[in-house]
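task queued by scheduler; priority normal; single chain, no ligands, no partner chains; default sampling; output format set to structure tokens
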Amino acid sequence: MENTIPTLTILAMALSALIGIAVPAALYVLFRKKGAKRLPFWIGCATFVLFALVLEQIAYYFIMQTALWTTITSNILFYGLVGGFMAGLFEETGRYVAFKSVLRKKRGNDQNALMFGAGHGSIEAVVLLSVSMVMNIVYSLQFNAGISPSFGGLDAAQQLIDLPSWMFLVGAVERIAAISIHISLSVLVWFAAKNGKRFWLYPLAILLHLFVNAVAVVLSGSGVNVWIIEGAVYVMAIAFALLAVAVWKKNHTAQAEAIAEATAEASAETVKEVVEEVSETVGEVAEIVAEVAEEAAETIGETLF
């Protein structure tokens, strides 16, 4: 066994950890400049923690106590479908509940959908990528310094030594696509929550979430090359983004047109009222002038005659 974990490997870990923090920070700043509020980002983070890391895991705990779990794990396709469905059900329901409750008063600004999606995907990136990479870095530095690592053992060290350095960048590449998918799905659920006629976008988001997760799990479990898997995930991320853009344009534009129409109607009504008031005022003034003129004529007539 080699004596040290390669420096290049540790640098790759550090770069991945940095990406897991830098991308969320950049998205936060970007969407703030576009007019989104701060709260949706943090609600997105909290929603992921509650629905994905707590409620979903509780559901898994009970499923794992049944004989069904053996059936699920014995078939990679079944395992991928069930895992994808669980992730889609809990995470998309979390979005819907958040939009209908704590963010109800924020639904007037559609930019908040993007901010929420950024928060939802960002906390996942920090937890699954940055934290794990920092732990790997601490372990690697302790091991290379001859200090007994605080966690893990010699087997873990050998795994870090044997893995190519570039493998530690795969997670960062994947998280970028995952955050994009979270933002896209947030847009779908956002408009489902805003407009009852668009409710079907919510179950659609669940199915899309199921699909992307299932494809990734099945391909990975089948031994497909990691970059082919990441390529497939990026193709789906791009497709989801195009769908979200189409939904955004249709619903956001319709909203803007409705506001413009309402404003135009209000303006027309206001102008009409003003014209009527002016007409009434002119009529009253004309009557007063006529009365004054009549009185003046009578006064002049009496004076002359």
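post-processing summary
- The mean pLDDT is 86.
- The longest helix spans residues 226-304.
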